[in-house]
Amino acid sequence: MNRPPVLARAAGAIALATVTALGGVVAPPTVSAATVESPYVNPAEGLRNVLWVGNNWEGTADAVHPDGDFHRIARINIIPDRNERLVEIHRDPARLALYYGIRQMVGEGHDQYVDDMYSTKDGRNLIVSRPSFADVVSIDIVTGEIAWRFPVQGFRSDHMAVSPDGSQVAVSASTAKLVHVLDTATGREIGTFPSGDNAHENTYIKGGTQIVNESIGNVWTPLDQPWADVTKGERVLQFVDAETLQVIKRVDLRARLAEAGRPELSIGVRPMTFSPDYRFMYFQVSFFHGFIEYDIDADEITRIVDLPITPAGDVPREAHLLDSGHHGISMNPQGTKICVAGTMSDYATVVDRDTMQHGPLVSTGLKSYWVTTDLTGEHCFVSWAKSDKVSVLSFETGEEVAQIPVGYHPQRMRIGVAPQDWSGNPVPLPAPGSPLPVFS
């Protein structure tokens, strides 16, 4: 484990949700600390907020206006060096085998070009993890050129998180069972910390002093029944000191689920979100159509929320997409509503945090895959991976208020910034398909 330098940190299918009440306490609404700490609140002069949408199978990212008419500002090429990377891969037999294995088992027969992305605080660059190329790149938003590139350990990069001050990005190296922490300006590695099998999501909390990390295990295996749980490998939910990169606490989730009366649920943690005071964590787990409320301070599961399963989602475990039941959750900045992607059931819905009752099931696309929230708490955004669009849901009513056409197979979305007068860059968009490399 590497040690970084000391950093300054800023301070029925339509039925109501069935809640297993376990003594949960909901804190009074307040402005989310996560929103206050965001590098993108009150952007500097000459910048504007945008919603970045990663089109994973296309190798592009869309910049979308996050309010008003939600129009697309520009689409940029995330893989301008595709041929160079493919040449490298095809010259290394081990990498080539893993490259095609990941394409088939994780990418559903497609290359994964854009997993996660964050803009730099100054709006000059977009930092992107590219699973098929096992790297992280920083792309100059205006010129389209790659400013720096960092190859991760192992054969696949995955979810990322940016620190509140915008100086660091944490990226999961999923096959290497670790997380790299990089300097956003240079791509220099600051340090690493261990994770479990298939290191997955990361989130900076508490002013950037801690990183919450989880791993989801071997989601591509066909052995999905509970009796074969051991084949899923090591799955962790852990809290890491962001300065020393030492693991502070690993949650014994299997024990916590048993205490909550739900030992049958998976311990593979999926997307997560936090209450404004970081007292409670809300997360999804593999195969489960709902989410869990966890009291961080008490180390206790306080509520488990079962959400509807539609006919589309009423399928065997083996038919779940990479073990996901639901994959996407985000709380509004006020801490009163939770927006959820019901992935396998092809819906999105807004849940009241106090009562845990859900609103309308918005089913206007296929495979709702990610959720993110605007900075005001007015809207949440839901990507539909198999419909190539993003829905805008009202937190107040739970209804869809707009649809945004985007690129091929949108997944991750992040609020960020871009230059005020920017409308694209000169780099041509990638040709469709999965070409073979051209050797020079």
TrEMBL record:
Which residue stretches belong to region Disordered? 419-440
Q: Which top-level group of life is the source organism from?
A: Bacteria
> What are the record keywords, sorted?
Kinase, Serine/threonine-protein kinase, Signal, Transferase
Question: Which InterPro entries does this one have?
Answer: Host-pathogen_enzymatic-act, N2O_reductase_N, WD40/YVTN_repeat-like_dom_sf
Where does the record place Pro residues bias?
427-440
Report the leader peptide range.
1-33
Q: This chain belongs to which protein, by name?
A: Serine/threonine protein kinase
Instruction: Name the source organism.
Output: Dietzia psychralcaliphila
